[in-house]
Amino acid sequence: MSEDCIFCKIVAGEIPSDQLYQDELVTAFRDISPQAPVHLLLVPNRHFNDFGEMGDEQGELMGRIAQVAGQLAAQEGVASDGWRFVTNIGAHGGQEVLHTHFHLLGGRPLGPLLAR
Ligand code: 5GP
Ligand code: ZN
Question: pTM, whole model, 2 decimals?
């Protein structure tokens, strides 16, 4: 647990969230400011500042995140039409919350990856 980290507090249940899934490694909840009909956040329960800090030792965790993402995409009804799974890193990546998180987006055509 990192002091003053909003996602650590969500994982611990200290800040409420619309939680969809939690196990010993991963928590998933709805983004508070959705940018698509389906906009979920998947986070490791353990604090990492960003995806670039994660490595080989997080193999089990990363596998779990992939599995949970697929499961939630199906549950949310976006598996067949397609969805996007992205993580922002650092200033140029547009990362606002410094706790590794993956955006699961879908429910409409999402357009190009980057604004042109
Ligand atoms: P980033 O820009 O860091 O990749 O994404 C951070 C995301 O976290 C944003 O989409 C933002 O709406 C979401 N977010 C920020 N604070 C909260 C919160 O307290 N609860 C939830 N559910 N989402 C949050
Ligand atoms: Zn954290």
Answer: 0.97
